[in-house]
Amino acid sequence: MLQLKAATFGVLMGVLSASLSAAPSPITDTQKDTAEQLIETALNSKLGYDIVTSLTTEVGPRLGGSEAEKRARDWGADLGKELGFDKVTIEEFSMPFWDRGHLHIALTSPYQQELYGTALGGAAPSKSEVNADVVYFRDIHALTEVKDGELQGKIAFVDGDAMVKSQTGAGYGQANQRRRIGWQHAQRGGASALVVRSVGSDSHRFPHTGMMSKNDDKWAEIPVIAISNPDADHLRRLYRADKPLALSLHSESKWKGEVNSGNVVMDIVGSEKPEEIVLIGGHLDSWDLGTGAVDDGAGIAITTAAAALIAKLPTRPKRTIRVVMFGAEEVGLLGAFAYAKQHEANLANHVLATESDFGAQTIWQLVSNVNPEATILVDEIAKILSPLGIIRGAADVVGGGPDIIPLAAKGVPTIRLNQNGRDYFDLHHTPDDTLDKINPDELAQNIAAYAASIYLLADTEIDLKSTK
Amino acid sequence: MLQLKAATFGVLMGVLSASLSAAPSPITDTQKDTAEQLIETALNSKLGYDIVTSLTTEVGPRLGGSEAEKRARDWGADLGKELGFDKVTIEEFSMPFWDRGHLHIALTSPYQQELYGTALGGAAPSKSEVNADVVYFRDIHALTEVKDGELQGKIAFVDGDAMVKSQTGAGYGQANQRRRIGWQHAQRGGASALVVRSVGSDSHRFPHTGMMSKNDDKWAEIPVIAISNPDADHLRRLYRADKPLALSLHSESKWKGEVNSGNVVMDIVGSEKPEEIVLIGGHLDSWDLGTGAVDDGAGIAITTAAAALIAKLPTRPKRTIRVVMFGAEEVGLLGAFAYAKQHEANLANHVLATESDFGAQTIWQLVSNVNPEATILVDEIAKILSPLGIIRGAADVVGGGPDIIPLAAKGVPTIRLNQNGRDYFDLHHTPDDTLDKINPDELAQNIAAYAASIYLLADTEIDLKSTK
């Protein structure tokens, strides 16, 4: 039996080898050597960690449209020049500015206790202190069934559950419905304010902020506040013990008119096809609560460092590598839409796009959406990345990150290097998003993966885009 | 060689067995059976978790001297009666009340950024907004060397390091020197305020509060504020990058005069020696930031549940078991000193005392300080606890917990069941000290250990106290 099995295995291997050897690798030996050298260099480089340290320390929090975000753009442009990018441009755009202001929220019945809350992006201020009884909703589905006017004079509280921890971040889309659309129903019900369980997987007392969705192109006209998981647990326990709940809150968050933001665009110009662009990047803005280390100082550091390592090669890759530090991502992908619009005429030359915007834990998977003939190239890239612990995922995953959405929608091919996001939603959009949460070795693994794959994609002869 | 070793080992074992069997066990078979039944019952009981859930949910934060602490005392007394304690008394005492009020602290140079700070207990308010340059001190030792008046018009910042994580909590005493005595030197130097790195082992953005020490019976006359570890890291990085640091702060914390606090004293009266008291307990007050689940709702739950399980035995143990829910521990062991004073005439009848005030992770060690003749009993108790993963520690460890200090100083024998405190200083004195941080199974292990050991100590014929 063993003999037979071995023989069968040998035959299978033979077939497999034949099949493998039938298709010549789309990566040359020189390219492979260069990619492997980039990995080695990246793993031993402190560049990425220095970049995220500098951004979080010297700029700090940088809300889309703020003066701090402007400082971040200047920081980014200076960095690009220092690191040897061939062209560095700041491309400005206009945007409405939402400011958090001061918030106070406390339990007043069954007894007085301060709660830990944060206004959600786009929320209106309270006209004065709101003191009201609470109507409890077990989840967002329960709130959507509220009758018009039923919540008059009340505060709606939408519970839910702490986000499930998952490597892929699955569960975020579902959990953040209470953050996204809750206000429409609370407002329709006539509530004076909406309070929701924060969208996060942690049990810390910091609630997670984040943008709400517009409805009919309008923002909420009431205060909308997330409270931390432990505080939401607390309200749930009191509700279940039949205690009458009441809250007092005052929020100053509001829209403050039109301001400027911008994207920092930095090119390593291609040696043979300079007009063809492989776009990588992260978003430069952060929420105002933390210093935006994980979201998305990491992405800025990973992609900038990867490109800077490629820029040090004796010869530029064939295509242009463009790092975009997107502005105002958190507040509605405003930099991404501005970029897509400002480069509309040239989108056909964007042969690939990807963004790093899921923290700095190790990358474990490479997914793609390039033309079928180019998929073999991504397969081969995955083999080169495999010593980094990265596996090949699906070849039909559209979109390379939040800021790539407008480009992907226009048909730009994408890849995505997926970080392990198991702890991401412990930190995401909280004051805890600070530099100490980044592991320099994991960050270096990210940069190694980006440097090798982006180099190969920029230097290949293969047409990534054409579907023929 | 192997043969010889085995033979030697056998001889040694023989000697050891002979020596063990020579001393009769101080624990009867019936006592042992009862202790083991108590362990079994405790491990399968939800009582302790229900108690800490009720305290943190229905009372919440309960600062020493506050109206909430008064509610906690009523809650405790009601609980004691409900659980079948034979006597339940609230023993009031008077104390000065310190109130936190509102705090605002922000970095203003090299750029504007909100910091996460908390006033330290006993601190004075700022007269108005303080805006000043920062003088950086690497640690408390550096600050103690400041010359009188040298800090005029400045804010002193004392850095240091995040607390080392350790099972025993070693490192707290050293780290909290900056919290305890820093103000004396900052004030002597003429500083407008003192800011210190929070005393905690975590990297969360919540600073840890805690009481300062008096100096010459006086409290600080300046604001004293702890900032979170990530914020302290941030200031350190900016300082090392030669950025001029300036802060803006305003704190309302202040002393508000004399109020009442109290201890809840609950007895299970002994069947043969009711006048002899085995005292166990925890502290009922908490800091105002969290809901005091780990510090020290856990201790209240563990000791009350352990005693309540013993109260259900068919016969009361020989000695009285007294549970004391101490008041106002956090603000200077005020309940402990009040108890020692109010029971001064009767302290000789306190044959043993211990407190649970180190969270609710598993107990791993039993230490003691009883009379030498009774040490063998504690050794035997440790054997009965060993299936719970508990080992016997030293027999010369004076003090059974913070609130036991005044009793131990008067010669009351003590034991201590040491919890694993590795994560304790991630939560201690922060808003994150909430119910979700308690693992019900670990809490049950604590209760099992307390129930068995306290029962055996209360029922033994051995004199725990007399040194003869």
TrEMBL record, chains A, B:
Look up the record and report any one GO term of the cellular component aspect.
Answer: extracellular region
Q: Which Pfam families match?
A: Peptidase_M28
* InterPro entries associated with the record: CPQ, Peptidase_M28
Keyword line: Carboxypeptidase, Endoplasmic reticulum, Glycoprotein, Golgi apparatus, Hydrolase, Lysosome, Metal-binding, Metalloprotease, Protease, Secreted, Signal, Zinc, Zymogen
In the UniProt record, the signal sequence range is 1-22
Q: What does the UniProt entry say about where the protein is found? A: Endoplasmic reticulum; Golgi apparatus; Lysosome; Secreted
Q: Which GO terms describe its biological process?
A: proteolysis
Domain Peptidase M28 as annotated: residue spans: 263-449
- Cross-referenced SUPFAM superfamilies, in alphabetical order? Zn-dependent exopeptidases
Q: Which GO terms describe its molecular function?
A: carboxypeptidase activity; metal ion binding; metallodipeptidase activity
How it assembles, according to the record, is: Homodimer. The monomeric form is inactive while the homodimer is active.
* Record-linked PANTHER family: CARBOXYPEPTIDASE Q, PROTEASE FAMILY M28 PLASMA GLUTAMATE CARBOXYPEPTIDASE-RELATED
Q: What is this protein called?
A: Carboxypeptidase Q
Whose protein is this, by species? Alteromonas hispanica
Task: Print the organism lineage.
Answer: Bacteria, Pseudomonadati, Pseudomonadota, Gammaproteobacteria, Alteromonadales
